[in-house]
Amino acid sequence: MRLDHQSIEDFVWKVRTLLQKAEIKDAIETISSFISDYKIERYSPEAIALSARYYQNESSQRKGIESSDNIQLERNKIIFATLDLLNEIRQNSIDKIASQLGEHLESIAKKGEEAVNDMNRINILMAESRLLELEAWNFYAGLFPGMDKNKVENQIEAFKEILDRIKKHNPNIIK
After folding, report:
1. Is residue 55 a contact partner of residue 49, using CB atoms and an 8 Å limit?
2. Rounded CA gap, 167 and 128, in Å?
3. What pLDDT, in 10s, does the model give residues 60-94?
4. Nearest to 78 by CA among 48, 45, 51, 59
5. CA 16, CA 84: separation in Å to the nearest integer?
6. Do residues 165 and 120 lie in contact, with contact meaning Cβ atoms separated by under 8 Å?
7. Less CB within 10 Å around the terminal CB: N or C of the chain?
8. Cα 38 vs. chain centroid, distance in angstroms?
9. Measured at the alpha carbon of residue 45, what is the angle toward residues 41 and 48, in degrees to the nearest 5?
10. First to last CA, the chain
11. Is the dihedral of CA 131, 133, 134, 139 positive or negative?
12. How far is CA 110 from the centre of its chain?
């Protein structure tokens, strides 16, 4: 399964709701399932320990070997430990998603930069082609009556200036 922000928040809400109803066993099982489903096994030992504490406490109550006060105190400790584990899993999961998102955004930015560089290279190639065409026209300008040689020379100079400026500010574009 793919971890996303909504699944984390749904999980947190479900566990908190279970704990509010004092359904400790179900809350711990929900945490264990989440750990297994999203392969975040580093929390598995803590979830197992909480489960063992819960069952041991319930067993002590059934056997009558602990006072009601001690049983309730241990339940409260288990609830708080469960909330601590829940918050740690939530924060770690959110950090993991943020890291994955950052990597994805870096990849998108790199692809975008490559696309812009490719477009700049195409523009330079087209400008150089047009410059070559204008220089050819300028060379043969005397053969064609009515051709404005000054206009062609001005366009040549304008293209040269633009190309020089682009090459100066973007030395990595030209390969």
Report:
1. no
2. 12
3. 999 999 999 999 999 999 999 999 999 999 999 99
4. 51
5. 11
6. no
7. C
8. 17
9. 115
10. 44
11. positive
12. 14
